[in-house]
Amino acid sequence: MRINKYIASCGIASRRKSEEIILQGRVNVNGNTVQELSFNIDESKDVVEIDGERIGLAGKQVYIVLNKPEGYITTVKDQFDRPSVLDLVSDIEERVYPIGRLDYETSGLLILTNDGDLTYKLTHPKHEVDKTYMAIVKGIPTSEELSQFEEGLYIEDYKTAPAKIKIVKKDEEKKYSICQIKIHEGRNRQVRKMCRAINHPVLRLRRVAMGEITLKDTEIGNYRHLSKEEVEYLKSIK
Ligand code: URA
């Protein structure tokens, strides 16, 4: 099996990310560093290590959906030693990783799995699924501002793809609104940047759905396993 596919099958990272890990010289096979992406692994006898830690093919595939609280990072650990979402799923034996990311301050739905192929597919720009957010934004967007948001906006050096936004509640007195927002791209802090671009910065942000997957009644800080149908649905996304 190709080395990047092997690493993905072990649930360490997506195939794309696995390639980066290989090129960074972090992979050893039978004691030798391997940096060629074309290298093949013999699963029956090769000993593969990443950063000195032995890895192996994952037995069971795990798919969960976590209700992420604000104040957690979605990467393994950072230099500030902030809490990670992985701390919330530490009772799961398999090493699972988030599909995509949410900002430290964003709460809500985050899917985690050890299925590197699914992670790769769902985070590839070609397949990006619709993600639904509820955002509390400053002020009350006008219909013109909402259309700008829907048509696509220039943020930094690119134009966003058309997105959807709907005001579900206005508080004229306190001067904020609650909006439902749907985007299918997944650029860094995209919702926040888009809202800022129409002069209605995000005060709070929560993701409520990824495609058809929702949190159901999962409490904040808790997770649930996806049903067989939900996993099949995610795998069937073209
Ligand atoms: N867009 C953002 O700005 N933040 C997130 O966490 C997700 C989408």
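^ uracil complex. The pocket of uracil is lined by residues 102-103, 106, 189-192, 205 (CB under 6 Å). The longest strand covers residues 202-210.
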